[in-house]
């Protein structure tokens, strides 16, 4: 049965956030809110968590996992980024964007796209997600909480608790969050490719 954490949207309770991050360090898979929608998240090296995300979402090995980072300095440890791309991404973060970039050696192999050796990264503009990342001190390995055969991602904490009670370990509820997945921008092929149009404005990339 998943633990249910009621977190204030503007002033997240430190003790509650610490309880969640302690669980993550102990191997928990959590559902947490972001500026785009809810996401499933676990610690970077959590193989069981990765397998559970794949099972819940029925993902194949071509799926791009996302490293949700607290800030740009942290993001830069996990992806290779040149000056032009740096400036473009810097101007769009934090925000509802996921960027596909070549991964550094810091990224576990099982997270990489099998052919491209790329990974997704993002910096959310969400108070509770940021509090979680700051307390954890490392990125959260994440994937949008979009269930198979459903067109819309899940956006209500109580509904997630009800439907995924036996497949996740914790649910963070801080009220309303975003209702659309992130906009996904691929920089790995030399030219900018908009892979998915979502919550983020694409005009700066076109």
From TrEMBL:
Domain of life according to the entry: Bacteria
PROSITE patterns given in the database record: YRDC
Domain YrdC-like stretches: 14-200
Listed InterPro entries: DHBP_synth_RibB-like_a/b_dom (IPR017945), Sua5-like_dom (IPR006070), SUA5_domain (IPR052532)
SUPFAM superfamilies reported in the protein's UniProt record: YrdC/RibB
Listed PANTHER family: DHBP SYNTHASE RIBB-LIKE ALPHA/BETA DOMAIN-CONTAINING PROTEIN (PTHR42828), THREONYLCARBAMOYL-AMP SYNTHASE (PTHR42828:SF3)
Record-given protein name: L-threonylcarbamoyladenylate synthase
NCBIfam families hit by this protein: L-threonylcarbamoyladenylate synthase
Gene3D superfamilies, sorted: DHBP synthase (3.90.870.10)
């Amino acid at each position: 049965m998943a633990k249910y954490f009621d977190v204030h949207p503007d002033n997240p309770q430190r003790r509650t956030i610490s309880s969640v991050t302690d669980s993550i360090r102990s191997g928990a898979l959590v559902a947490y809110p972001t500026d785009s929608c809810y996401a499933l998240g676990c610690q970077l090296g959590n193989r069981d968590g990765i397998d559970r995300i794949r099972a819940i979402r029925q993902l194949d090995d071509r799926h791009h996992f996302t490293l949700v980072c607290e800030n740009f300095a942290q993001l830069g440890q996990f992806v290779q980024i040149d000056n032009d791309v740096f400036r473009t991404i810097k101007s769009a973060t934090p925000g509802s964007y996921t960027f596909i970039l070549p991964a550094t050696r810091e990224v576990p192999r099982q997270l990489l796209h099998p052919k491209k050796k790329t990974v997704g990264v993002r910096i959310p503009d969400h108070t509770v997600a940021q509090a979680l990342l700051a307390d954890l001190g490392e990125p959260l390995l994440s994937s949008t909480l979009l269930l198979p055969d459903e067109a819309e991602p899940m956006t209500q904490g109580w509904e997630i608790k009800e439907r995924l009670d036996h497949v996740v370990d914790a649910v963070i509820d801080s009220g309303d969050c975003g209702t659309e997945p992130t906009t996904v921008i691929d920089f790995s092929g030399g030219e900018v490719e908009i892979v998915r149009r979502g919550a983020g404005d694409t005009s700066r990339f076109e």
